[in-house]
Amino acid sequence: MQRVVKAGASASSAELARIAAVHDASVRPALVLGAEVDADDGRFAAVALAEKLGADVLVVPLSSRCSFPEDHPRFAGFLQPVAELLNHELGKYDTVLVVGAPVFTLHVYTPGPVVPSGTTLFHITANPGQAVSALAGESLVSSPRRALEALAQIVSGRPAKRRAAGASEAVAPVESMSPEFVLQTLAGLLPHDAVFVEEAPTHRNAMHTHLPIIMGQRFHVAASGGLGWGMPAAVGMALADPGATVVCIIGDGSSLYSIQSLRTAAQRGANVVFAVLNNSGYAAMKAFGRRLGVPNAPGLDLPDIDLTQLARGFGVPADHVTEASDVHGAL
Questions:
Q1: What number is the average pLDDT over the span 295-299?
Q2: Which residue has the higher pLDDT, 288 or 233?
Q3: pLDDT, tens digit, 9 for 90 and up, residues 179-196
Q4: In this structure, what are the phi and psi dihedrals at residue 272, rounded to the nearest 5 degrees?
Q5: How far is Cα 138 from Cα 156, in angstroms, rounded to an integer?
Q6: CA distance linking residue 319 with residue 296, whole number of Å
Q7: How far apart are alpha carbons 305 and 181 in whole angstroms?
Q8: 220 by DSSP, 3-state: which?
Q9: Which of 44, 55, 114, 173 is deepest in the core (most CB within 10 A)?
């Protein structure tokens, strides 16, 4: 199928007028957002368009930033980097507008089309390379924020229906605490303008459920899915904005890629908390091994590593928490 790629967007442009007209006629519209929206300071514009359209808002697979408040009633969740799962989720909608992201980043191969035949997809990105390489839809090269602002002005709007916000079920403290309980506790403690850096892929879905990123907060994760970026990135963000509360949520395996960044944090007095979710191994790699038929790949267990001693050796105070009753006080 031949794709269409165009450039330029303003409130009077024919391209945006056509996108607006299709969405006005849509019965089940969805707005799918990526990291460019947040980088372009487009969160408020995205909220305005979603509310006017009455559209569900989804996050593209492997987005490196938060571009929509996850406690907003129109927020509908996160897309997975698997073609068959994307096809299933996007099949719920007749019109999909992807803004500020590739279409789409895939991490696990499955056969078949990414976008169902009955779904019309439009794509807006500031990245010409992403526009020409999109797997489906019509692409427009434009500033995401300007395009969202223009669309919010020209769409007709509709009465908002359904989408009761799905509140996550509270996690009760248990004798052996869970990552879910830690994340829930963090969510209740942190200020409205906290900065999160995440590198705990095994627990990302739990984080989405129990630690929603709200409007004033910022969220960052490596766009590539690789490991080793999180700890030094958190230190850099804390040094760049000394008044911010920076929290790095990281796995024990991930921490070992660049744990020496703790020394910079200590030397420079960076205001950052590292919350290490320790499961004594590379759980994400174990999951890939099972998927690939190698359930017992060597070198993926990390028993008996004392991360608190490592931190203290680099000059950073550290606590080892094993009971749910101690989590709140430690944080």
A1: 87
A2: 233
A3: 999 999 999 999 999 999
A4: -140, 140
A5: 21
A6: 32
A7: 23
A8: strand
A9: 55
Of 323, 45, 306, whose CA–CA distance to 175 is shortest? 323
Nearest to 95 by CA among 44, 49, 146, 150: 49
Q: Domains in the chain and their CATH numbers? A: 5-154 (3.40.50.1220), 179-330 (3.40.50.970)
Tell me whether residue 295 is exposed, middle or buried, using C-beta atoms within 10 angstroms of its C-beta: 0 to 12, 13 to 18, 19 or more: exposed
Q: Which residue has the tokens 């500031």?
A: 126
Beta bridge partners of 275: 249
Tokens of 324: 């749910």
Supply 131's token pair. 């526009």
What is the tens place of the pLDDT at every residue in 62-85?
A: 999 999 999 999 999 999 999 999
Quick one: pLDDT at residue 9? 57
Residue 244 pLDDT grade (very low, low, confident, very high; cuts 50, 70, 90) = very high
Angstrom distance (rounded) from CA 177 to CA 42: 38
CA distances 134 to 1, 127, 138, Å, are 12, 11, 9
